[in-house]
């Protein structure tokens, strides 16, 4: 009689591993259902543990949720702050910051949904609102230095900081579900509007300065050709008008009864 194969004993998780497992499961459930729509029973069941284990590590779902939110907050704030401080040119700072937010959204959609869900736009409270306020503070500091250097009124730096951050943040929320166009294209178009304004939009914005330079050169050549064409058209029109005037004078001389 063949003896049954010995059962392999599943490796028991350490306390740290179990905590990370619960955090990952909690992030997924909270992103889909929110804090109120998620129960301790669901978290425990998904982790394959009993409810007391969740209470032991976090004191309940509220404690777990708070840790998840804090982690995502610090992660995104760190990415954007690093992006702002990693470049010298101000357009590049804006490009890197916009791209950092979009990269975070693409790679951590659950975390971003939790941050947005926790924010209350009408009251300016919640983790996402707090996050944007922190980022705006970083941008404000950078803009204030630039304004001072160019002789602009630095008291308007907070207004411009809030405008820039708000534009990128709302675009990120819109992009969360569609993910089209590509994040690099989204960042390029957002910065195009922020940097150039509606009156000076680049037809084909790009994060690559070489491509922008080539596109600018093509635009300048097209403008030169258009100007040269318009000048020739004006010269031809002037020549036709002058010819018509000469013909008119000749006809007038021919029909003059006093001649």
Could you explain how this protein is built, in words?
- The chain is mainly alpha-helical.
- It has ten helices and no strands.
- It has helices at 15-33, 40-47, 51-58, 61-85, 90-107, 109-117, 127-150, 157-178, 183-196, 209-255.
- α1 (15-33) crosses α4 (61-85), α3 crosses α4 and α5 (90-107) packs parallel to α8.
- Mean pLDDT is 86; it is low at 120-125.
Return the structural class: mainly alpha
Q: Average the pLDDT over all residues and give the rounded result.
A: 86
- The number of strands is 0
Strand content: under 5%
Unreliable residue stretches: 120-125
Oligomer classification: single chain
Distance between the termini: 140 Å
Number of H/I helices: 10
Helix and strand succession? HHHHHHHHHH
The level of helicity is over 70%
Largest sheet: none
Radius of gyration: 32 Å
The global form is elongated
Strand-helix topology:
Elements: H1 15-33, H2 40-47, H3 51-58, H4 61-85, H5 90-107, H6 109-117, H7 127-150, H8 157-178, H9 183-196, H10 209-255
Helix pairs in contact: 1-2, 1-4, 1-6, 3-4, 4-5, 4-6, 4-7, 5-6, 5-8, 5-9, 7-8, 8-9
Question: Short summary of the structure?
Answer:
By secondary structure, the chain is mostly helical. Helices cover 75% and strands 0% of the residues.
Can you give keywords for this protein?
0% strand, mainly alpha, 259 residues
């Amino acid at each position: 009689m063949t003896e049954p194969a010995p059962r392999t004993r599943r490796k028991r998780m350490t306390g740290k591993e179990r905590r990370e497992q619960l955090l990952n499961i909690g992030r997924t459930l909270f992103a889909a259902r929110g804090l109120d729509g998620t129960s301790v029973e669901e978290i425990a069941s998904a982790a394959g543990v009993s409810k007391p284990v969740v209470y032991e590590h976090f004191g309940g779902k509220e404690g777990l949720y708070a840790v998840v939110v804090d982690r995502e907050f610090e992660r995104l704030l760190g990415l954007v702050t690093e992006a702002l401080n990693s470049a010298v040119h101000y357009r590049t700072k804006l490009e890197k910051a916009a791209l950092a937010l979009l990269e975070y959204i693409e790679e951590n959609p659950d975390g971003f949904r939790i941050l947005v869900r926790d924010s209350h736009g009408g009251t300016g409270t919640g983790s996402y609102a707090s996050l944007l306020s922190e980022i705006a503070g970083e941008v404000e500091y950078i803009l204030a230095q630039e304004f001072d250097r160019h002789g602009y009124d630095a008291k308007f730096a907070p207004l411009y900081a809030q405008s820039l951050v708000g534009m990128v943040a709302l675009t990120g929320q819109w992009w969360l579900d569609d993910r089209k166009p590509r994040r690099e294209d989204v960042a390029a178009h957002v910065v195009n509007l922020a940097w150039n304004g509606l009156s000076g939009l680049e037809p084909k914005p790009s994060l690559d300065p070489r491509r922008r330079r080539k596109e600018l050169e093509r635009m300048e050549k097209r403008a030169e050709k258009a100007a040269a064409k318009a000048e020739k058209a004006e010269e031809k029109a002037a020549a036709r008008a002058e010819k018509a005037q000469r013909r008119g004078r000749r006809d007038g001389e021919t029909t003059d009864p006093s001649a």
